[in-house]
Amino acid sequence: MKKAIVMFTLIGVTMASVIAQDFNRAKLDEFFDVLEANDRVMGSVLLYYRGEPIYQKSFGYADRSEKIPLTKESKFRVGSISKTFTSVLVFKAIEEGRLNLVQSIEGFFPELPNAEKITLSDLLSHRSGIYSFTSSQDYLTWNTVPKSREELYQIILAGKSEFEPGTKANYSNPNYVLLTWILEDTYQESYPYLLQKYVLGPLGLNNTYIGEEFSPDQGEVLSYRFLGEWQQESITDMSIPLGAGALVSTPGDLTVFIRALFEGKLISEASLSQMTELRDNYGRGIFKFPFYDHFAYGHDGGIDGFMASLSYFPEKDLAYSLTLNGANMDPNQISIAVLSAFFGKDFDIPQFSDDSFTEEELDAFVGVYGAPGFPLDITIRRQKLALMAQATGQPEFLLEHDEGTTFVFRLANLSIEFQPENDQLTLSQSGMKFVLKKK
């Protein structure tokens, strides 16, 4: 559920077909062939132009141990894309006069700090100040265990408040857990029932639902993390993310959903205007993504190794979805390639280095690194002919060799340059550099 930073009639022949012929399909196929040949990514991608799929591709496995290939019908957990669906349900309730944006949540959650100041709008746009339990160091120790509503509510209460409501925005998953409960209490119906009644049923989205236990019989896929080799991820219990991140779907259903949203098939034009209104770069369950001189609205998602992206370009009537169940590269590079192909922009076919180190050479980099004033220790270990890194209290990740003694973790835009002769490393991220010494 992390937020993760990112970003995307007939006259002889359909315009969609014209576009399909114009964009560089062969180069895009080559792009994915190279990724698959180098075992860099597993998932599905779809470009949906004016209501027609003009490019669709699946690559990798739904289950690596059984060698079950992914198909366009494979179902992925799509994490925080769920929030856009939840936001639609809230605006439906507002249109029906059951809720309003400026009402406080005190009547629903009187025990919550600042409940009298937090509005529905604050929850929708992440301006509540409520601490996100997914950021806690212990989150990964309990996220696979079912939680009752009361148990999860007590966890949210324990997180307290990070800032005065309405003063700024900070991404927080409990905002949408609380919205899930508000919807259920308002309608006296379950969230899955409301989702089916107001969104899935009307649009005929038969491959989308709130996940429960992993169900391969329904076409659900496993997720993986690359740590020198692919390892199956643990599975978050869906009693935890709820309307913040529990959705299961396909690229096909996702693109139909977001196009329908902007066509006015789900909420009114006035509601959509409020939903897409930006403040501090946050909409209400949606974000705005730039791509050269174009822009899209959408949301990203990530949970248990699954990564997903959904966007819609109103000016082009173009919907784009990407669902991954494993990535050993920056998934943004995939989106850039696909959208570049559509918009006629150049993009590169990736080249992966064959450079390798011996075990003895890699052992020179192994150790625990830190520095006075730096809040975390960085532990480096060798796994066969690969280097793994882990910051205090955070998940371990694979370092990919870049050049010389520099290794990178592209998902976080992080690089580490080792200086074994000085027993130190230089960590670079987001324009900042830190020199850490081996302890």
Automatic annotation (TrEMBL):
Residues 39-330 form the Beta-lactamase-related domain. It comes from the Bacteria. It comes from Cecembia rubra. The keyword Membrane does not apply. Residues 1-20 form the signal peptide. This is D-alanyl-D-alanine carboxypeptidase. The keyword Hydrolase applies. GO terms for molecular function: carboxypeptidase activity. InterPro entries: AmpC-like, Beta-lactam-related, Beta-lactam/transpept-like. Keywords: Carboxypeptidase, Hydrolase, Protease, Signal.
